[in-house]
Specification:
By secondary structure, this protein is α/β, with parallel strands linked by helices. Helix content is about 50%, strand content about 15%. It has one domain: 3-Layer(aba) Sandwich (Rossmann fold), CATH 3.40.50.
């Protein structure tokens, strides 16, 4: 565990189709480095590498399990804030069906939701998130305005 002055990490989580990756992509366009979660240790290593290179604002796309969350909180004490992106089920499923890569039909989306809820501890992380962003409109600009407001609030 290394200590970095003024390090802030925003980890975006949510069920499939909520817009967490969209949020991370939007923020990354503002020249913030992003880490796409692959494994807990690889994510810690990537964040350390970025911090050692002088980056002090880092975003993470997804934290899939409670043990991953606990490791990030342990490795970067006081630096990690979790943002849960939420959206109504019907809208999430619509987005999943419209994806260019690996689109899912309604049955596949429902099955995937059940699998997440029954076998993943991601819902625990969503329950203790520091912030929530509701992505319940089809208008991207509304969602981006919410993201900008959160970044301003956090002085990110």
């Amino acid at each position: 565990m290394k200590q970095y002055d003024n390090l802030r990490i925003l980890a975006f989580i949510g069920m499939p189709g909520t817009g967490k990756t969209q949020a991370v992509g939007y923020i990354a366009q503002k020249n913030y480095p992003k880490v796409i979660f692959s494994s807990a240790q690889a994510t810690v290593d990537q964040v350390n590498h970025l911090a050692e290179a002088g980056q002090r604002r880092i975003i993470i796309d997804d934290v899939p399990e409670w043990t991953d969350y606990k490791l990030l909180k342990h490795e970067f004490p006081g630096c990690v804030k979790v943002v849960a992106v939420t959206a109504p089920t019907h809208l999430r499923h619509k987005r999943l069906a419209e994806r260019l890569e690996q689109p899912l039909n309604e049955e596949e989306s429902t099955t995937r939701d059940a699998t997440y809820v029954e076998t993943s501890t991601k819902s625990n992380i969503i329950a203790v998130a520091d912030y929530y962003l509701q992505n319940d409109k089809e208008n991207e600009q509304d969602f981006y305005a919410k993201i900008d407001a959160l970044l301003a609030e956090l002085q990110f």
